[in-house]
Amino acid sequence: MRPDAPRLIEALQDRLGSDVEVFLQNQFYSGTLMQAENGVLTVYSDIGGYDATPVKFVIPLSAVQFVRVLPA
């Protein structure tokens, strides 16, 4: 686990329900932060189209380069 993981998880706990952008080395996720614990982030993203069912992404914190919390 990343050495800064506990601090990052703690900071993101206050932002649950916020829109975020999560950047990995070669990927990017955008959506609503639903969970931040046990070394993973859970983000729900509405990808649009006819089926408006949100897609759940479980992202290991070890792969995260940085997280941007978007303004409300």
| CATH A-level architecture | Roll
Content of β-strand: over 45%
Oligomer: single chain
Order of helices and strands: HEEEEE
The total strand number stands at 5
Q: CATH fold name, please?
A: SH3 type barrels
Structural classification: mainly beta
- Summed up, the domain count is 1
Task: Tell me what you see in this structure.
The protein has a single domain, classed as SH3 type barrels (Roll). It has a five-stranded antiparallel sheet with strand order 4-3-2-1-5. The chain is built from one helix and five strands. The mean pLDDT is 90. It is globular, with a radius of gyration of 12 Å. With 72 residues, the chain is mainly beta. The longest helix is centred in the N-terminal third of the chain and has 9 residues, at 5-13. Strand 1 (19-24) and strand 2 (28-37) form a beta hairpin. It has one helix at residues 5-13, and strands spanning 19-24, 28-37, 40-45, 55-60, 64-69.
Describe this protein with a few key phrases:
1 helix, 72 residues, single chain, mainly beta, SH3 type barrels, 47% strand, globular, 5 strands, 5-stranded antiparallel beta sheet
Helices and strands in order:
Blueprint: H1 5-13, E1 19-24, E2 28-37, E3 40-45, E4 55-60, E5 64-69
Antiparallel strand pairs: 1-2, 1-5, 2-3, 3-4
Brief sketch in words of this structure:
The protein has 72 residues and is mainly beta. It has one helix at residues 5-13; strands at 19-24, 28-37, 40-45, 55-60, 64-69. Strands 4-3-2-1-5 form a five-stranded antiparallel β-sheet.
